[in-house]
Amino acid sequence: MQNFNELLQELNVSSSQKGCHSGKTWYGSCETIRSFSPVDGSELGTVSSATVEDYENAIAKAEHAFLSFRKIPAPKRGEMVRQLGNKLRKKTSSRSIGFLGNGKILTRRSWRSSRNDRHL
User: pLDDT tens digits for 49-59?
Assistant: First the structure.
């Protein structure tokens, strides 16, 4: 699937990833999970699953981050989330990920249509 490989290159993402992230560190040394395109059955990439200890470590770090994040006033948190969303929407590739993962063809019109459907 050429479009998917181009997307990965554009985002500087490898087709082989680790499956657990703690905010700074990626973990994954267990079973490898392969992902296939629903369009043509080609392999899209692999994810290495993490150990139970890795997941527990990630959860502990997420809980710590939550405690820090909730100290920020709600309007400021909302502004941070809004800015993140705006940055993601600026990149065509960010919009493409869901469509390619679902085997759909992305056009500007189909993206707008799916975006408007969320507000119904």
Answer: 989 998 898 89
Determine the CATH number of domain 2-112: 3.40.605.10
Angle at CA 71, nearest 5°, toward 66 and 75?
Answer: 105
Instruction: Supply the pTM of this predicted model.
Output: 0.53
Domain ranges of the chain: 2-112
Which tokens hold the place of 91? 């990149």
For residue 100, which of 53, 42, 49, 48 has the smallest C-alpha distance? 42
Taking a C-beta distance cutoff of 8 angstroms, is the pair 46, 15 a contact?
Answer: yes
With vertex at residue 7, the alpha carbon angle to CA 44 and CA 15, rounded to the nearest 5 degrees, is: 35
Q: How far apart, in Å, are the Cα atoms of 50 and each of 15, 42, 61, 79, 81?
A: 17, 24, 15, 33, 28
CA-CA distance, 55 to 61, in Å (whole number)?
10
Q: What is the mean pLDDT of each run of 10 residues along the chain (120 residues)?
A: 69 81 83 88 88 90 91 95 84 55 52 50
